[in-house]
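User:
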Amino acid sequence: MEDCTFCKIIKGEIPSNKVYEDDEILAFKDINPLAPVHILVIPKKHISSTDDLEENDEKLVGKIFTVLKNLAKENGLKNGYRIVNNCGKDGGQEVKHLHFHLLGGRKLEIKV
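Assistant: Predicted structure:
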């Protein structure tokens, strides 16, 4: 997607503070953190939202959760953390590229 902010980050057209990268996944620090640790984890394959996942994306999403777990450990989130995925306008999704927020480093209020 040409106008996708996260695709531009993947291509290096927009700078980011990368904390993890492999052939399929990129993770970087959020520029407006909501917690001491706030990392975005995205697939390099453009998938607009959770609603656009296909059956063949199952392995990729599983790998993303392994990366999230490892990043939580590497960032010292021993007392817990939150993983958030917003889907669609009413769900609060601002960037139309599947992404997961890893939040931690303080006690997070429950807001569901």
